Amino acid sequence: MNNDTAMHANDLTQLSSREQLSALMDDALPADETRFLLRRLQHDAPLADCWERWRLAGEVMRGLAPAQRLPADFAVRVGAALHGTAPQAALPRRAAQPAWMRWGGGAAMAASLAVAALVLQRPAVDAATVAPAVLATTTADGPAPMQSVLGGSAQDAQVLAAASAVAGASRASRASRPAPADASAARSRAHLARSSQGSPATQIATAASADSLPLMQQPDIVTRPWPRAVLPQYGSEGLTVGFGNQAQVGYTPFQAHAPAGIAPVDADVRGAALASPAGDAPTPQP
Amino acid sequence: MAEDDVSQALDHDLVARVQRGDSAAFDLLVRKYQHRTAALISRYIHDWSEVQDVAQDTFIRAYRAIGGFRGDAQFSTWLHRIAVNTAKNHLVSSNRRPPNDDIEIEDAEQFESGLRLRDNDTPERELMRQQLEQTVLRAVEALPEELRDAITFREVEGMSYEDIAERMQCPIGTVRSRIFRAREAIDIGMKPHLEHDNLPNRSHA
């Protein structure tokens, strides 16, 4: 019963639209109703097809029946070509393109993929070439061209040789491993370079750099640790923050407690922290 | 014979809406003139697939140039000129010579002459046209007299609703309803014929 009522209502709505369409065809529809009907025609293909058939019937009655009719979706194709709502390949295009253009698209796609692969590999190559240079700079305290310009002595030549040895050792250790392809691999190489400071070549380079400081005229770079690193309990934690450990602590609002995972602060350290100004040693935040 | 006054007024109203950015109005113009435009182009180009391409290019050019249409001429005449020029340009671009003995731009006002004076229709096309005409005429003859008179006054004589109401001595609302019911009845009789023809004609060259 409900379905019949709904279908009857739909039929009435459709009938009204079709009657409005008939009036529009005879230029007898008011402007406002024409506007609403045109808006509906944008989404009502059967109604637009009805317009087309009525127009065709009128031409037949006037003795102007076309001998051959366009496809039923011709107007849709024109609209798609005008507004780009659908591919224009609907109409049969006849051999308008030369043969090389058929596979030219595939070749262009393959070339673009090759370029993309090269671009993706470039950061790893750059990291591999930059890391030894950085290492040599930090261990020898100055690039080689600067030393040659300054006219270095035999001591400077030793520094340069030591830096080259460190760079060569770094390259050898890197060659024994698979090539990394991201920034984390570059960080691991830097860590490896730091760990290689215990080698004899690095010790020589370090001693030579200490001797060549007056020659190089390099300003002293003092690295200041993060204030939290001064506190012993944050020596290895860094700036990591954990949230999951808070649930293990019971609700004790009147008792001071340290966050879970942090060792209890010694009494002397706590006293030193209380005695020092707040700006020098900030209190740990949970 | 050109479009009647009612059809011209509708065309100008739809063109004005297209110029204001209403794409649905241009879709109605395409559906109204697509078959006549294709028939006109077929006088210059005999390959049906090429005719479809040129007809599509014609409407694309018309849409892009419709902002400059001021209504000095009929829209059908203006569209006719674009179709003829597009067809001739298509022939020139493909190193073919346009026919000299065909209709010229100056004959654009005689839009329907391009449809009546056809000498290149194949017997198969002529048969299809006659079948469609017989289908429609049978549907019209089967209409009640008041519906048949109303649709004949409107479609064949080109009369307005007011003139038909005066001729038939009935209200304009009655005329509108009679014409609508006549169109619905003709459509019911014509629909199976069109659906049957559309299936094999989709890719027919």
Q: Main β-sheet of chain A, in a few words?
A: none
What is the H level of CATH, i.e. the homologous superfamily of the largest domain in chain B? RNA polymerase sigma factor, region 2, helix turn helix motif
User: What's the CATH topology name of the largest domain in chain B?
Assistant: Rna Polymerase Sigma Factor, Chain: A
Highest-level CATH class of the largest domain in chain B? Mainly Alpha
**Tally of distinct domains of chain A:** 3
Q: How much of the polypeptide of chain A forms β-strand, as a percent range? A: under 5%
Helix-residue proportion of chain A = 55-70%
Gap between N and C termini of chain B:
30 Å
Q: Per CATH, which architecture of the largest domain in chain B?
A: Orthogonal Bundle
**How many distinct helices of chain B?**
9
Low-confidence stretches of chain B: 200-205
- Poorly predicted runs of chain A: 87-96, 133-153, 169-186, 188-214, 265-269, 271-286
* Count of all domains of chain B: 2
Helix/strand order of chain A, N-terminal first: HHHHHHHHHHHH
What characteristic shape of chain B results from the CA principal axes?
globular
What secondary-structure arrangement, pairings included, does this model have?
The complex is a heterodimer of chains A (286) and B (205).
Chain A: H1 2-25, H2 31-41, H3 45-61, H4 74-83, H5 100-140, H6 144-150, H7 154-175, H8 183-195, H9 200-211, H10 213-216, H11 227-230, H12 267-275
Helix pairs in contact in A: 1-3, 5-7, 5-8, 7-9
Chain B: H1 5-19, H2 23-41, H3 48-65, H4 75-93, H5 113-116, H6 123-141, H7 145-155, H8 161-168, H9 172-201
What does it look like?
The complex is a heterodimer of chains A (286) and B (205). With 286 residues, chain A is mainly α. Chain A has three domains: 2-90, Orthogonal Bundle (Arc Repressor Mutant, subunit A); 125-216; 227-275, no CATH class. In chain A, 61% of the residues lie in helices and 0% in strands. Chain A is built from twelve helices and no strands. Chain A has helices at 2-25, 31-41, 45-61, 74-83, 100-140, 144-150, 154-175, 183-195, 200-211, 213-216, 227-230, 267-275. In chain A, α5 (100-140) packs parallel to α8. Residues 87-96, 133-153, 169-186, 188-214, 265-269 and 271-286 of chain A have low confidence and may be disordered. Chain B is an all-alpha fold and 205 residues long. Chain B has two domains: 5-116, Rna Polymerase Sigma Factor, Chain: A; 123-201, Winged helix-like DNA-binding domain superfamily/Winged helix DNA-binding domain (Arc Repressor Mutant, subunit A, Orthogonal Bundle). Helix content of chain B is 70%, strand content 0%. At the A-B interface, α1, α2, α3 and α4 of A face α1, α2, α3, α6 and α7 of B.
